[in-house]
Specification:
By secondary structure, this protein is an all-alpha fold. The protein has one domain. The protein has 3 helices and no strands.
Length: about 60
């Protein structure tokens, strides 16, 4: 369970949906390159293998 205390969200799923929408809106405005992206992709490739290529990542 993500949200331990009672609040504005009716469920964990409602909170996750809101977080998804916030990240989606922020990513539209993102203009700076991601620092160390090549290293990150290499580490993800080691961990997840061919599944990371299906996502569209390039090493």
């Amino acid at each position: 369970m993500i949200a331990v205390h009672k609040g504005a969200f009716t469920s964990d799923l409602a909170l996750m949906k809101l977080m998804f929408m916030v990240v989606k809106e922020i990513s539209k405005k993102w203009t700076m390159p991601i620092r160390n992206w090549g290293l990150t992709m290499q580490q993800l490739h080691i961990k997840f293998g061919d599944r990371i290529k299906a996502f569209g990542g390039s090493i």
